[in-house]
């Protein structure tokens, strides 16, 4: 096999039409900087590029399920997939699952980074031990639904003979669970200057920046104004993630900064900027509770719409200038460039369109779930919120569907037509939770924004918030780690008594929630 030619790939040049000219459904490459690099040598400029990789499975071999992603949806799916029936090939740029609801806590050291990740091999051991199952650390950039192949590019680290290194994997069934990307609304300067909070390395960068700013501000000769700027942490977006991060930051300031950075402690400030109301999807009493609690904890709440972001300040639509030392952006998520580039039906909002069985109609053997997927308009169902709760339950639903059709020989490509799929996926919202810092959280058990139902705020809710997540995809190792870290902080147990917990209440809530969250 020769890789001698640096092909000016037709795929790249024509933005996907190359595939169509050849009668192939190929999605365009979107990673423009790398797209025209290495493909196998082909006969002429108009030949399809040929990639090394895994060819289609042969008769007698187990069907191969290719899974894109290692997030909530993909991991829940892989965890329960029957590996006596299927081989699994998982492709993802990261080799672990991130326990996103607890990510904010790692930025300020409440939790260790290792406690919020779970290696994918531990979630599905067949990936490491089964002869025909693999994990490939790569990003998928294209899918050929006719040939049943995905095209991937490895993460570059300078260790491969050709970089970027591209390969293909043929599938019998394809499960796309590639998540979403933060929305920036095209606002100038956001990508360059703001931090996002989606991955562990983001949390690490935020922590590093925060500590660096604290240390820099102690240097001699730093003006009052500059100190204030360096130690002004601004969070944009008052959804659950923005609120949780602001709460964690204010906790950190109260808990650690006051003791460890006494010279500059009075300069540290957290401001949460939101265009409308914070936590707009929560019950009105919970919103009020959160507002009061955050204000009492020293978080400044500001109404405003960001117009542009500069390296040291942001400008709001009304002209207000807000200097900052740390800027965290959390204004929701939307379809990723990869999802946008796929030549597949789309749901309202641009996610991959799916039917009630999470299939992508009009192509065979392709399923999509989690943040990257949404019900097609003609299904009459709403696009579900981008939540771990949704992703995880879709993962569980799909693995049961796969195990069922696999038992009836429907696992191979083009073989599931006559399989009984069973009941369609039905989503029942179990409620929303958000922590607001200082061992307080909100639990809203209403099924929708306008429905009536139970809501609760305070320490008991915080316990529920933490414990509900302990039972999810993660291993016992991490449950123990997180459980241990839960009560690690000075004043934790003392505060419990100060708060006069109703233990019956805790028992009731915990039982209730663990039943509801069990899947
Ligand atoms: C800080 C934070 C806090 C949150 N808190 C909550 C909460 O409290 N409750 C709740 O319900 N939800 C919460 N969410 C939302 C929740 O995390 C998401 O809804 C959930 O992660 C979606 O799962 P997913 O599997 O669809 O996508 P993700 O978990 O985002 O996983 C996507 C996967 O796809 C991979 N990938 C991306 N592109 C490609 C590609 N081209 N090829 C292959 N792989 C690819 C990614 O590396 C990743 O492994 C939170 C999110 C964040 C960021």
UniProtKB/TrEMBL annotation:
Keywords (A to Z) from UniProt: FAD, Flavoprotein, Membrane, Mitochondrion, Mitochondrion inner membrane, NAD, NADP, Oxidoreductase, Peroxisome, Transit peptide
Subcellular localization, as worded in the UniProt entry: Mitochondrion inner membrane; Peroxisome
One Pfam family named in its UniProt record: NDH2_C
Example of a GO cellular component annotation carried by this entry: mitochondrial inner membrane
Keyword Iron: no
Organism encoding this protein: Salix purpurea
Purpose: Alternative NADH-ubiquinone oxidoreductase which catalyzes the oxidation of mitochondrial NADH does not translocate protons across the inner mitochondrial membrane.
Family: Belongs to the NADH dehydrogenase family.
Cofactor: FAD
Root EC class: oxidoreductase
Annotated ranges, domain FAD/NAD(P)-binding: 64-395
Every External alternative NADH-ubiquinone oxidoreductase-like C-terminal domain range: 429-481
Gene3D superfamilies: 3.50.50.100
InterPro entries assigned: FAD/NAD-bd_sf, FAD/NAD-binding_dom, NDH-2, NDH2-like_C
Record's bilayer topology term: Peripheral membrane protein
Gene Ontology molecular-function annotations: NADH dehydrogenase (quinone) (non-electrogenic) activity
UniProt region (Disordered), positions on chain: 1-20
Protein name (database record): NADH:ubiquinone reductase (non-electrogenic)
């Amino acid at each position: 096999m020769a890789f001698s030619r640096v092909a000016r790939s037709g795929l790249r040049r024509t933005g996907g039409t190359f595939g169509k000219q050849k009668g192939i459904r190929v999605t365009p490459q979107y990673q423009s900087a790398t797209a025209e690099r290495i493909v196998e040598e082909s006969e002429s400029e108009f030949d399809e590029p040929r990639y090394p990789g895994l060819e289609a499975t042969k008769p007698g071999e187990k069907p191969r399920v290719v899974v894109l992603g290692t997030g909530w949806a993909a991991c829940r799916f892989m965890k329960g997939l029957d590996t006596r029936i299927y081989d699994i090939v998982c492709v993802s740029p990261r080799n672990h699952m991130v326990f996103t609801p607890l990510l904010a806590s790692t930025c300020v050291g409440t939790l260790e980074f290792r406690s919020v990740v779970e290696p994918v091999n531990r979630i599905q051991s067949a990936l490491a031990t089964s002869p025909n199952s693999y994990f490939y650390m790569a990003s998928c950039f294209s899918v050929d639904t006719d040939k049943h192949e995905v095209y991937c590019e490895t993460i570059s680290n300078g260790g491969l003979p050709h970089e970027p290194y591209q390969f293909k994997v043929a599938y019998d069934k394809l499960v796309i669970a590639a998540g979403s990307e933060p929305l920036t609304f095209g606002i100038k300067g956001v990508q360059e200057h703001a931090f996002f909070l989606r991955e562990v390395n983001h949390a690490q960068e935020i922590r590093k920046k925060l500590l660096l700013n604290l240390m820099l501000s102690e240097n001699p000769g730093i003006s009052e104004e500059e100190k204030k700027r360096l130690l002004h942490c601004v969070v944009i977006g008052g959804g659950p993630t923005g609120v949780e991060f602001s709460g964690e930051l204010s906790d950190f300031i109260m808990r650690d900064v006051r003791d460890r950075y006494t010279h500059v402690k009075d300069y540290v400030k957290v401001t949460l900027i939101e265009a409308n109301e914070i936590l707009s999807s929560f019950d009105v009493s919970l919103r009020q509770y959160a507002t009061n609690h955050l204000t009492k904890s020293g978080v400044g709440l500001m109404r405003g719409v960001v117009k542009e972001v500069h390296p040291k300040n942001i400008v709001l639509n009304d002209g207000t200038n807000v200097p900052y030392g740390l800027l965290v952006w959390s204004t929701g998520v939307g379809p990723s460039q990869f999802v946008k580039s796929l030549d597949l039906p789309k749901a309202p909002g641009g996610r991959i369109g799916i039917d009630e069985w999470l299939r992508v109609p009009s192509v065979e053997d392709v399923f999509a779930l989690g943040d990257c997927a949404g019900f097609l308009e003609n299904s009459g169902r709403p696009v579900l919120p981008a939540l771990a709760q949704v992703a995880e339950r879709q993962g569980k639903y799909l693995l049961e569907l796969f195990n069922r059709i696999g038992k009836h020989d429907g696992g191979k490509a083009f073989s599931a037509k006559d399989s009984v799929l069973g009941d369609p996926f039905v989503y029942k919202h179990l409620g929303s939770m958000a922590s607001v810092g200082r061992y307080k959280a909100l639990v809203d058990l209403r099924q929708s924004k306008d429905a009536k139902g139970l809501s609760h705020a305070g320490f008991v809710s915080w316990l529920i918030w933490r414990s509900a997540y302990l039972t999810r995809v993660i291993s016992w190792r991490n449950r123990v780690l997180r459980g241990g870290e839960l009560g690690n902080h000075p004043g934790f147990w003392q505060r419990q008594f100060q708060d006069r917990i109703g233990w019956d209440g805790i028992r009731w809530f915990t039982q209730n929630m663990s039943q509801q969250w069990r899947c």
